[in-house]
Each structure stands twice: as C-alpha cells, then as structure tokens.
Amino acid sequence: MSALEQPILVSHKLCPFVQRSVITLLHKKIDFTIEYISLERKPDWFVEISPLGKVPLLRIKDTVLFESAVINEYLDETHGEPMLPKDPLEKAEHRSWIEFSSSINNIQFQLTQARREETFSKIEEDLNKKLAHLEKRIGDKGFFNGKEFSLVDSSFAPFLMRSKILAENTGVDTVSDYKKLQKWRENLLSLPEVKKSVVKDFEDLYMESIYERGGYLADQ
Ligand SMILES: N[C@@H](CCC(=O)N[C@@H](CS)C(=O)NCC(=O)O)C(=O)O
Question: Which of 55, 66, 98 to mutate to test ligand 1, by most ligand atoms within 8 A of the CB atom?
C-alpha cells in the first residue's frame, strides 16, 4: 500500500481514545499515517470533517470514521485475527466493557483536573467503586478474557498506562487495591504494541499537562 493510500489517524499526543486505536493498528500490523493536531486550535480542515470535533478520526480515502470503539471494530473486521468473540452474547459483553473503559478514561481525566482535595477524593471514590466491578470480571491470565489480546485490552491499556505514570510520579495509584488489575497492567504495558502506541516523551508531556493545570494531584 502506498503512503497515499494508507489510513490516516487524526490524533492528539495525549488522547487515550486515540491511543486505543493506535494500539489496535499496531497489534494488527496495519500500515497507517498519524497526523497530530492541536485541540486548543483545531485546524479548519478538521472542524470541517469531524462531526463531534473530537479525535481520533480515521480517514480512509474519502471516508471519515469517528469514535475510537467504532474505528477499532472496523480495523478488527477488516484485518487479521478477530479481537472480539464470535458469540453474539460474549461479543455484546465485551462491547459493554469497552463502553465502560470510556467512562474510566473520563473519570481518570477528571481526577487529574480536580482542584481541591475534597473533589479529588469524591472522584477517586467513584473510580474505585467502578474498578471493583472490573476486578471481579477480568481474568488472571494476563488479558481481559484469558490468554488472547482483545479489543477490551486495547481499550483499557491507555488508562492503565496513565495510572502507572501517575503512581510513579505522584504516589497515587488508583489500582493499588486490585491485584488482578495490577497484573493486567504489568502484562499490557510490557507489550510492544502498547509501548509504541505513544510518543517517546509521552510521560513528560502527560505529567507536564497535569502540573500546568496545578490541581490537587500536581501537589502530591
Ligand atoms: N468517545 C470518543 C471520545 C474522544 C475524545 O473525547 N477525544 C478528546 C481528546 S482525548 C477530544 O478530541 N476532545 C476535543 C473536544 O472535545 O473539543 C471516542 O471514543 O473517540
């Protein structure tokens, strides 16, 4: 495939939703081009083609796909070994957890934004309750559903990567109560498709974005 025919992933360096599509693209060994934009000053061409004004977008010739879960399912259906179960009930359950991972990303973002300790604690409590459900569901063989890397794994890896960075830089580890989640995190973060899914200076950029906001977490 020539560079001109490759799918283009319109991205932002810090976006966890972009990252899940990058992980899926890398896992499937699909050639793609990545194009970073500023979300503070969205380019006109992006505003023109992005119905929700959000990244990621996947441009395939004249077609624009949006919503990371939809992009990932398209990539899954068109390339390589399936990353969702065949059985409709199991597939629907996996989709439920992918949807859940989007809420978890949003809560983690709110946690990094919280200005006061009281707000931070409320968000942390909410996150903890939700993660307890996840801890009950995940397997203990390294992946969400056993030994195979699935779309649920690629959807949670960005949250888990950020939780590790936050733990190392602030001492706040949002998965510290959950043994299976910790094991899952170690396994996912050791995979090449996850390691290569962010820019080289991701940790610095991520922490800088948190320090710039100057919220409660920045003082830890
Ligand atoms: N549900 C969307 C969420 C995407 C999303 O929230 N992207 C953020 C960056 S991480 C964004 O583009 N925000 C820009 C804006 O809302 O103006 C998905 O899964 O793709």
Answer: 55
Asked if 126 contacts 109 with a C-beta cutoff of 8 angstroms, the reply is no
- Locate tokens 């043994």: which residue? 179
Please report the atom of ligand 1 found closest to the CA of residue 55.
Answer: 12
Is the minimum distance from the CB of 109 to ligand 1 under 6 angstroms?
no
Residues sharing a CB contact under 8 Å with residue 197, sequence separation 6 or more, in sequence order: 19, 22, 23, 26, 157, 158
Residue having the nearest C-alpha atom to atom 13 of ligand 1? 54
- Per-residue buried b or exposed e for 35-66, using 16+ beta carbons within 10 Å of the residue's own CB: eebeeeebeeebeeebeeebbbbbbeeeeebb
Domains of the chain: 8-78 (3.40.30.10), 88-219 (1.20.1050.10)
For residue 220, the model assigns a pLDDT of: 82
Rounded to the nearest angstrom, the gap between the alpha carbon of residue 170 and the centroid of all alpha carbons in its chain is 20
Ligand 1 atom closest to the CA of 66, numbered from 1: 20
Q: Which residues of the chain have pLDDT under 70?
A: 1-4
Q: Choose among 166, 149, 150: nearest CA to 207.
A: 166
The answer to whether the CB of 65 is under 6 A from ligand 1 is: no
